[in-house]
Amino acid sequence: MPAEHSSRLLPMNIPSTDSTPLNVRPAALWEFRIDVGGTFTDCIGVSPNGLWREFKVLSSGLTRGTPESSRHDCLTDSRRRRDPQDFWVGAVCRLRGPDGSLLRECRVAGFDNASGTLQLDHVIADVDSFTYELDCGLPAPVLAIRWLLELRPDATCPPVRLRFGTTRGTNALL
After folding, report:
1. End-to-end CA distance of the chain, in Å?
2. pTM of the model as a whole
3. CA distances from 106 to 16, 90, 93, 151 (A)
């Protein structure tokens, strides 16, 4: 699994820094514990029924990938199969050449997580050998919460409990 974007289920026996037992916390609220680092943001979410999930994303809030195939106005990346259905609709998609130069910028018009296919609002058939980055315009912690809740970036987010920390800038103190 690529380091810049990962998710996994966690076992229930992970120790909590909160002494309040999960079964007496407010009902129907997700709890998120987020650590923003210089490169990655790690997010652990605990669902109202006690399921622990983890999500890791670049601290820039960008999601990068290399398509396995592209045609007309679509690109397919199997790593996107783990993403919630329609999650990337409306996001900016930047296609970058091997040297990192911007080749094209467009928007995601549709997303099928079963195949990992992003449908774009511009034809990309004339673009060869590229990587892409998806940008929802959200800070990494917000992106991670929405991903774990399976909410599109434009959907209303319900109330959640949040614990937030950062290790950004700590090396400057040393």
Report:
1. 32
2. 0.79
3. 42, 10, 5, 22
